[in-house]
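Continuing the series of single-chain predictions for the mutant panel. This is the parent chain; the variants come on the following pages.
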Amino acid sequence: MLGSIGVPMAIQWGYCVTCGDAERFKTAGWDYVEENVQGILQGTVADEQWTGGATVDKSTLPVVAANCLVPGDLKITGPAVNADVLKQYMTAVLKRAAKTGMTTLVFGSGGARNVPDGFDRAVAKKQIIDFLKMAAPIAQQNGVMLVAEPLNRGECNIINSVAEGMEYVTAVGSPNFKCLVDSYHFWLEEEPLSNLVTAMPSIKHVHLADKVGRTAPGESGQSDYKPFFKVLKQGGYSGRISVEASDTGKTHGKEKKILTYLKEQWNAA
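Parent structure:
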């Protein structure tokens, strides 16, 4: 069944975990799971060997989004780019996203898009734009929204801010390619909230984690989400918000606490 790229009418709260963890998040009141493209959609695997669909079918929460769009060894920039392989890969991924009901795929993929040392950055930017212009029509055919995820410079050396991400949104010019904002990367890069204000019409997905330690929201005790949330609310955001934290293995039993904290921050913003 084809997914819809229409934005939900109310905020939905999700967590970046595997389908196997869905039950404990469902019990705590979360709305959905955000999976990993490499684990579920498996774009390098032949159709007859693909097992991700069965995994999603067993999930006790909807799996509406997935991150890590392109594996690090499938290069989007640099001298080793193979456009035909990239198209074949994205065609498989997007068809499988539609089959499983996923409507949002996150283009972080730092390893795939990272510009090699000494390589012309202008050429690299064009390569990324060419990749997205190839992928966006396939996404549209399958009812999927692709969103660029700005990553901090410690993880990737291109598309490091919402403002930079918007350059690609403008260049691609597709209704099926927009932008994501991740609080962790946003804060780590010390990006001004004014950049997010400007980008709000194109913000179609949100990731959250505390700046310190990339812990789950509230766990570090050193992050205030209210100014960030205020911009989202004033910009009319009513979509999905996923926690993408590095301490997921340490938060067993805290699922409800984290969700309560986020809702309190949202309501107070």
